[in-house]
Amino acid sequence: MRYRCTRLVWVFLAMLLAAVAMGEPIHLRFVCWDGDQDMAGIFAAARQFERAHPNITVKVESVVANYQEKLLAQFASGTAPDVAMMDPANFQKYARRGALLPLNPLFKETPKFRLDDYYPEIVKPHSLHGTLYVLPRDIAPCGIIYYNKKAFSEAGIPFPDGTWTWDFQERPELKEKDFLWVIHHLSRSDALGKVTRWGYAPGWKDLWTYQVFQSTGARIADDYESPKRMRYDDPRIIRAYQFTADLSMKQRWMPSETEINSEMQTNTRQMFTQGKVAMFESGIWEVPQLRNEMKKGTEGYFDWDIAMAPAYKDGTRVFPTGGSGYCIMSSTKHPREAWLLTQWMAGEPGMLELAKSGRAQPAIRRLALSEPWIPGPNTPAEQQVPHNRIVTDQCVPYVLFGPRSPEWPEASGVATAAFGRIYEGTATAKEILPDGNRQGQARLDYLLQQRSLTPFNWTLGALFGALLLGLLGAWVYWPERKIKRTGRQKRESRLAYVFIMPWVLGLLGFTAGPMILSLLMSFADWDIIQPARWRGFGNYVEMATVDPRFWVSLKVTALYTILAVPLGVAMSLALALLLNTKVRGMPLWRTCYFLPTVASGVASALIWKRLFQADGGLINTIIYGSDGHGNFLGLAHMLAPLADVNGRVNWLGSEKTALGSMAVMSIWGAGGGMVILLAGLQGVPQYLYEAATLDGASPWRRFRSVTLPMISPTLFFSLVTGVIGSFQVFQSALVMTNGGPNNATMFYMLHLYLDGFISLRMGYASALAWVLFLIVLVLTGLQFRFSRWVHYEGGLK
């Protein structure tokens, strides 16, 4: 009886454990880059999924900034989400590295799933070699023209119906059917010739250009899925770039990129709502913001709608496009459940929730032709605008995604680095595009060659690292080999090592170890996901012979050092002299000047970006006045050679002034050097000044013969640290200019960051880091070598 009861207890416990195991929920992580406007729909769809699948919980995360870099880092560290948002431009960098699950095998296990319901135009760009890796959720054709009905009515032009065309010359005989004729007659200027309203503006500078050359049959690459040849030197592409530049710089019917960026840090949508642009072209995602900014009854309201962008004169239309979907990371522990979630979020439930916001056109055509995407009888009044939303479906057959290989962004970045000069009017397309194509093609060829490298030998690498550590230890302890110590001294030494062992381990693990790994990786091709591959001295050869931005970044950083370091030291010294007085309230002034040093680097960059703004910035407002026609202290005339087409200096948007502007900005941090020099000044013995005064020395002579020699060690320290700091400029360049215009502010550290964290070429970035280390080491050594001017008390250094 007792034995039977025991068996029953064990059976009961087993059943209980099985029930617990069966009832334990499965947790999935879902990551996207959507902002606040879309997250309500995302959360709603996720909660619906949880109700439909009670054993699954979904944690939704929004990563708006640096999404791709963070997702790759998470995958490399083993903390990737189960399902992630993805787009055609980026999915290959994951798929080629084995980071995504192919979806085709899952289709066979889901008989009711119908891929044919999706727009084929968005399915193919998410495929690689016939395998689908991303299930589309939305498509976003960029051939949508937003137009101001009031502007059309005032100009006596019928509202566009999408049947208009364009040619490289205006065709007055076609009137409203000719796009150039329309934007010409919609443009307005004041009595002084300043444009008060442009006829048309693209959402970004290349949108119209790409639409032009792609509609004439030209393509920037031979194969958009796996490009091997660049074609920026195609005569049709050259003509398209020049055509766009002329519309801005000659006809003045379209604002230049400089004018768009200088309009109070705005964009073309805001220029449209402000009445400064009669039409602008973009994607449908602009609608929610337009509804918020253009409410009936508010000041400046006007009626608006959308139309399809014009075709080429022969009827050909090709529009750039956006779009996205959801992928399953290969590291997921729950692939079946992740597939259920992907189907839900990129299926009818998820698409309908996003369609309600008016920003994401469903990738399933049936849903894109019905409510809530297309306004109907059940659509709220505020969501009825735009009325012509059916255009979003009509544009889809004409969309074309750009090249999608992982190597393309870096190679095309090299090719297009100087294209901004075309839009600025400082160079022609014929001068820029062929040379850019040549440099970009060389870069693309070099990157494609890296796919066939041999694996990195970690055994030899570990032995080499151990040898380096041994040589370092020998270099430290070899001079002490002949020193004889007593037993007590030896015991004290061993005890001392015990006390410093935590620091030694930290040094090896967090400083020396990473440095040795970086040195090893400088001889390899490594993307932190796939195993490293051996390159030998290939990275160093590449930067010296193939990478044009290496030499550009060195030149930019050297020029900045020459400008900013003397300027910063001089300003710090001037402040220190000014504040080295004994008057009431001096500590407060010292604090005020020091505060910018501890301020956020990004915040400081944004402040200065606003100050340097061409239109509405404080600097230009002082020089040119609020109306743009002033001449404060004659500065406007003096700066005329540096002015743009509007007669104002575009401090950050011009190659002539961008680097100098950033050097001036460096004064912002002069408070740090001021504190150091102030300490040096207060260490100068007062009796030296008294003796010089008794000898009849003037203030300038006392400064030159007493102050400068006595603070020369402090000045020398400021110079050394200033030079080192100038080679580490990164934050301000990234935030304010991102290396532009035309690489004019492509600092060395920014170049290193782009290669390491954007292009994922950690091996090449490691080589760049070691070259930087050697450059700084040599420059510091030279400064010490020529430091005889530095006075040390007692004559000792």
TrEMBL record:
GO terms for biological process: transmembrane transport. One of its GO terms (cellular component) is plasma membrane. The keyword rRNA-binding does not apply. The keyword Transmembrane applies. Its main location: membrane. Gene3D superfamilies: MetI-like, Periplasmic binding protein-like II. It comes from the Bacteria. It is a multi-pass membrane protein. Residues 550-783 form the ABC transmembrane type-1 domain. InterPro entries: ABC_transporter_permease, MetI-like, MetI-like_sf, SBP. Residues 1-23 form the signal peptide. Keywords: Cell membrane, Membrane, Signal, Transmembrane, Transmembrane helix, Transport. CDD domains: PBP2_TMBP_like, TM_PBP2. It is found in: Cell membrane. The chain crosses the membrane at residues 458-478, 499-524, 558-579, 591-608, 658-681, 710-730, 750-779. Belongs to the binding-protein-dependent transport system permease family. This is N-Acetyl-D-glucosamine ABC transport system, permease protein 1. It comes from Fimbriimonas ginsengisoli Gsoil 348.
